[in-house]
Structure formats: structure tokens, C-alpha cells
Amino acid sequence: MPLLLPVKGVPPVFGQNCYLAPNATIVGDVTMGDDCSVWFNAVVRGDVNAIRIGNKVNIQDGAVIHCTYQKTKTIIGNNVSIGHNAIVHGCTVHDNVLIGMGAIIMDRAEIGSHSIIAAGAVILEGVKVEAGSIYAGVPAKKIKNVPEELISGEINRIAGNYLMYSSWFREESKE
After folding, report:
1. How far apart are CA 118 and CA 133, in angstroms?
2. 121-128: Cβ within 8 A, 24+ apart
3. What is the rounded distance in angstroms from the CA atom of residue 111 to the CA atom of residue 130?
């Protein structure tokens, strides 16, 4: 069973058809839409501020979603993939975004729609990633615009695959 805890009387709330890995941790003021998944060892901590997650979001193994006390909420749009061991902290991530493995998104950053944050990239506090951009490096900088084939070939493909993967685990738990 995943660890689901209220904080100060506020429990996490989930939409329909969500998959939560047995060792995922989701606590406090977290609201998650439909068709989402939180994978093994991932942590979503809505203890010090609110976390709002749209539909069809996958939070992969070891990722951490958090915010800053009395300062920054974390808002994640629809159709977002957050890669293994990524940290998404006190920021806004718009729709149709791929955040690569080990990437770090800091407070008050804003990730525009149809963007890709490369594996290992660090988006510094307050940085605005323009829609349709690929950012990479430490600190991350724009390296190019997202070609149309990467929107369907990577952003949408990965989000769709994680919806499929989560169905495998839901089917196993019914047997």
C-alpha cells in the first residue's frame, strides 16, 4: 500500500484511474487529476504548501514533488511526464511537458507548454522556460525549439506509455 497521510487534517485527493505504487508517498494538500501515476519511491509532499496535479501526469521512480512553506505552491498541468529522480519544487509546469531524469526545477520557475527539460538539467529559481523549448545544462539554457516530431514522438508517447504501464499493475492487483 502506498503511504497516504493527511497533514493538518488535509488528505491527498485523487481523480479516477490513478495508479500509486506500493511504496509511493503522497501526503497533505495534494490534488491529482485522472489517469495519473506515482511510481516506486516517488514522494509528493503537500505538507508545507499545496500541490495541484492535472490529468495524465506520471511521476516516475524516485522523483520528489515539494513546495516552500508559505511561499510557493507546485502546479503541474496535464499530460506531463516527470522522469526518474527528478525534483520539481515550488514551480509551475504547464501542459504537455517532459521533465528528464534527474532534472531539478526550482521555486518560482515556470515551464511553458510543449517543452522538454533535458535529463540532469537545473532550472534555476524564477526562470521562465518559453513554450515549445528544450532546455539543458547546469544551469539550464535554451538549446533549441521543440520540433513537432518530439511533441508526438516523445512528450505524448511517454505520457501514453506510462498510462499503459500503470494498467499492467492495476490488472495484476485484481488477480
Report:
1. 10
2. 123/91
3. 7
In this structure, the dihedral spanned by the alpha carbons of residues 123, 125, 131 and 135, taken in order and rounded to 10 degrees, is -20
| 150 backbone dihedrals φ, ψ, rounded to 5° | -80, -25
Q: What is the pLDDT of residues 126-141, one digit of tens each?
A: 999 999 999 999 999 9
Q: How far is the first Cα of the chain from the last one, in angstroms, to the nearest whole number?
A: 16
So what's the pLDDT on residue 172?
67
Q: Phi/psi of residue 82, each to 5°?
A: -115, 110
Set of cell numbers at residue 138: 547546469
Separation between Cα atoms, residue 92 and residue 77, nearest integer Å: 8
* Contacts by 92-100, CB closer than 8 A, 24 or more apart: 94/131, 95/54, 96/151, 96/155, 96/156, 97/155, 98/154, 98/155, 98/158
Residue 11: phi and psi, rounded to 5, are -90, 160
CB atoms within 10 A of CB 138: 11
Spatial contact of 151 and 96, defined as CB atoms under 8 Å apart: yes
pTM of the predicted structure, to 2 decimals: 0.96
Q: Read off the amino acid at residue 93.
A: V
